[in-house]
Give the backbone structure.
Amino acid sequence: MLIKPPADIDPSEITPRNVYEARRTFLRQAAALGLAGTMLPHATAQTASAAPVTEQGKLAALPGKSSTLSTTDKLTPHKDVVTYNNYYEFGTDKHQPAQYAHRLRTRPWSVMIEGEVKNKGPMNIEDLLKLAPMEERIYRMRCVEGWSMVIPWVGYSLAELMKRVEPTSKAKYVAFTTAMQPDTMIGLRIPALEWPYVEGLRMDEAMHPLTLLTFGLYGEVLPNQNGAPVRLVVPWKYGFKSIKSIDKIVLMETQPKTSWNVAAAHEYGFYSNVNPTVSHPRWSQATERRIGEDGFLAPKRKTLPFNGYAEQVAGLYKGMDLKKFY
Ligand code: MTE
């Protein structure tokens, strides 16, 4: 197949072969399960889950104090943020999570804390919501596929939780795991990735104030397709580091496994910092298309080192060869 730059092709074409080959099987299985007809508008879809919803079926408000860590870039329209998603547990096409994730049960929910910490054990989502004051953080998000969005997230720095669980001196990394609900996550039947979805950060990355433990967007609790009830957002890294629907956090002495690195180690490293000078083996990372703003024919905008957050985070990687640690 002729390799074309991402601007000219559907982003789903640049996913690894096993992923796009999985799509057909997924659609066949969805049809067999009678899911094909369950496409619901965003707000209505949420009523099917146990996420906090109002009587009108709208997502519950989750306001946050606005933060100085926010960008002033123009926001990506809400409809794009909640319908153009990557959440492979609900299918590998961008529009499938919005169709199928209403089935995800987000209550009761707890996050298990394990490993090198003084305070181990399950943390109830209601307690997590109250652990620190919520902030609204408008972050640029850059997907490895060559598109970007600007999203007003609601949450607090992951560091708040880290301080509360008290890591031991042996804790050098933090590992995150997405919940597995085989009856609601139809994508788990397809080996697009090794399940459950896992991600990891180095301790100093996890403690950086920009790293957001996220519960909402656009002033409401997270829609399921965006990773309800709690996800990570790491704005200077490619989008896949921002793991959704977390149910386990383990503090570790050694570097944890990450899903995309397991799937294709030569394409996706542990660090995955946005870097316009390090190409993906199959396409350049020098430019991007802003969803909702830049049409397919518009000139692409330049991708910035660390997604524009270099001033805040470049110091974390001082002395490291970022071509080697991609
Ligand atoms: N988390 C899980 N559990 N499963 C996924 O497939 N996709 C990742 C990340 N987190 C993914 C995930 C990728 S590739 C991206 S770009 C972002 O979620 C997309 O987040 P969004 O849909 O809220 O924009």
Notes: Residues 63 and 219 are 5 Å apart (CA to CA). The longest strand covers residues 147-157.
